[in-house]
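2024-03-11 09:14:02 DEBUG pipeline.ingest accepted 1 chain
2024-03-11 09:14:02 DEBUG pipeline.ingest length=310
2024-03-11 09:14:03 DEBUG pipeline.predict start
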Amino acid sequence: MVDVPAQAANVARNLRYRGADAVRELASLVKYSRRSTTDADPVLDADWDVLVLLDACRADLFAEAAADVDYDFLPADPGSRTSPASSSVEWLETVFGGASDDALADLAYVTGNPYSASKIDHDRFHGVEEVWRYAWDDDLGTIPPRPVTDVAIRTGREAAADRMVVHYMQPHFPSVLEREQRSEGVELDAFGDDEMSVWDDLRFGRRSETDAWETYRENLEYVLEDLELLFENLDAERVVVTADHGNAFGEHHVYGHPGGVDLPVLREVPWCETTATDTHSHDPDAAGRDDTGESGDVVEERLEDLGYRT
């Protein structure tokens, strides 16, 4: 459910600047908080060998990119499904937390999302590779796709797991390309406390929706390049590309991806079915593979960097 006290605090903080808009946002969050009005499609019970999660990817964004970019694995008209969640935490707790031991025992989870530190029970999985622990880029304020791709390729080639979930952080903000150009990174330790500036920029009219959407699209195209590499270096008959949740760009006065909100823009996600064949065109570098055992403070800072409140 929506954290109403926290959202009320946001309204109080923003009331001076946003006036009635801040009140409307809170009212929408309460109105559309989960009431089981929309049934979710199955995730773990669906038929796949490899499930690729693109964090915060809307179905319409994915369809737009699929129509314009030329990748063999992308159909011109990809499908969509209804996610059980409108946030990463909710997805992890619902999909993995609600799964049987048998469903997870043969599942490898390769992830760039720091919520894996606290929101899943590692012992229930065949294996969990927390790539964010050693491959976070403080300058970018996120983890780029390539380290996740490399670990996924190694896991696919070496692990005995029957199934694998690969969780990329893109197209979730921050914008990788903007950070590269401006050299304005946020340290990994800042992942989770302050809201992402892009949403406040939209709330306060400092940035147009068109500009923010273009940046969102660039983040998606950035990770799609790695998916092409991944699918040329895995053997999997059934591959699905999907997302944990979407993003709201002001629809019904909602911004970002608050948990427990039943809006189509937050719960409709891509569902693109393809295959993968290992051509051994890429040999992932094993350097930097060791878990650094990041402290709880560092995990929270990384969550803050991605705009989550901890």
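2024-03-11 09:14:41 DEBUG pipeline.report The first strand starts at residue 50 and ends at 54.
2024-03-11 09:14:41 DEBUG pipeline.predict end
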